[in-house]
Amino acid sequence: MGRPKAELPFALGTMLDYVVSEMMRVFDEMVVAVANPRQYAWEGIGVRVIVDRVPNRGPASALEQALREIRFDRAFVCSCDVPFVSGDLARKLCEMLGDYDALIPHIDGKLQTLHAVYRKECAKTLATMRSKGEHRLHGIVNFAKVRIVSEEEIRALDPEMASFFNVNTPEDYQRALKLMDEKYRM
Hints:
Elements: E1 9-10, E2 13-14, H1 15-24, E3 30-34, E4 47-51, H2 59-69, E5 74-78, H3 87-95, E6 102-107, E7 110-111, E8 115-119, H4 122-131, E9 146-149, H5 151-157, H6 170-185
Parallel strand pairs: 3-4, 6-9
Antiparallel strand pairs: 1-2, 5-8, 6-7, 6-8
Helix pairs in contact: 2-4
């Protein structure tokens, strides 16, 4: 993208602001892991910001740190580049966790590890993974009791799969802006 996706202008703020506001709609507590410290308008209003202590180690390291910070036994985890993430879908995924350590959707042939639910105890699992040289978040399926949720199950909850629209390129970003504009015009 050429610049941090979290800071891309979106709706009335940034992409990160939009994702946080959607999650605030359905969750009582949020922990937002960021690479660089700065003041956010929503910080402190049920949202705690933590700065990744060891930057550039990837999402597994940041997730480990965030899970250590949560007060509840489970957390829905998403990245800042899914602007149409659904709080309602996130809540349903949390309810589907059952006695698993993690619940990860499988969409378009890929595990969506940054659109998933993890138990707080997975922080220890992630530390174990790191100690064994596994730094890819996908590796958690070999270390924890993971429920993989099929695309069909997700489609039953989110027929348009909008929650999984990911902004990775400038073209994706332009498409997201157009979709947001259409959403507010309705």
